[in-house]
Specification:
The chain is of the alpha/beta class. It folds into 2 domains: 296 residues, Aldolase class I (TIM Barrel, Alpha-Beta Barrel), CATH 3.20.20.70; 101 residues, no CATH class. 40% of the residues lie in helices and 9% in strands. The protein contains 16 helices and 10 strands. Helix 2 packs across helix 3 and helix 4 packs across helix 6.
Length: 421
Amino acid sequence: MDLLDKLAILSDAAKYDAACTSSGARRGFRAGMIGNTSSSIAGCCHSFSADGRCVTLLKVLMSNACIYDCKYCVNRRSNDTRRASFTPRELAELTIGFYRRNYIEGLFLSSGVLRDPDYTTEQMIRALRLLREEYRFNGYIHAKAIPGTSPELIYQLGLLADRLSVNVELPSEAGLRLLAPEKHRADIFRPMLQIRERHAESKAELVKYRHAPRFAPAGQSTQMIVGATGDSDRHILHLTESLYERYRLKRVFFSAYVPVTEHALLPSRDTKPPLLREHRLYQADWLLRFYGFRAEELLDEQQPDFDPLLDPKCNWALRHMEYFPVEVMTADYEMLLRVPGIGVTGARRIVSARRVSHLSFADLKKMGIVLKRAQFFILCCGKSRDGLRFSASTLLPQLVQIERGELPPEQAQQISLFDAG
């Protein structure tokens, strides 16, 4: 099998891995080396850098052969598919060749499990060592740490890669036992804990010693499949919050399950991937990371799944109308973040601008506030928006129309949320 055939097979096999994001690492120019990684250029497939450019990684598997038989995985050992594996030299030459042609800005490397986790990781380490030491590649590398790998090999991998990730895959242990009985959650969380501790130690050493080895400077991430099992959004969100707090993850990625095979324990191949559910989880993840929300605020036992009609923030506001309307001239930053239509940048602009002048709805619009949502939940100097009359009973259907993009802003202004009656 020639190299292009291998590339076609192993890049296609990697398409279900959604853990792609800008790196967050800084690896500046170094004499005698090729490439660099900084916040302005580092990134991955279908992502955008800080200066607005779309940047890509070569996203491949070391091998799509696997000793495991996970029922949801296209690369499981029982699946009748073409198998291929790169040698470390082939992968290194392919990566540096693509980089020199300006096709890519880095590498995203994962793999099926060949023989055992340690052997597979050793192959990945050899490829990355060739890139870093022989080809002097100084660009971004994201490597997948394989559960069950020995701590010594995880450490070596982290010294060569900018970011590591260990996939949770399924949200619950029951789901893992059902669909991937050969895998164990302890093997997944053990390397996560090691990466967190090694990353913290590396940062502390860099404070003392400028040239100390850097271990996974861009931290770690993970991915879980949504829709392959019956786990609720509430369970997934609580797990996500726990991963951020316990393991200091940079990102948790959600991947809507794509039916690739027929099995009695899996959704039918005719079932559409739950892409809207994936989207709602990403919205909620954003609220956890940047807006100060807790998982228990967004979902509870009475509402274990997100509303497909409204985004999580708007849904929370409708269930907590006792906090609204919010006066933009006096509300604190944390409360402004909870107003639908006001984001992190908008809240900062409001707090800064109101120190020197009274704000009007026109001012808010100039700041980038999404007034077609926010107007129902705010007051400016004690007044609602001109012409805004409303009743609570009509708010939900109108917000749903706005969510769908069916309601022009001028029509939305005719509805009022807080009528005198």
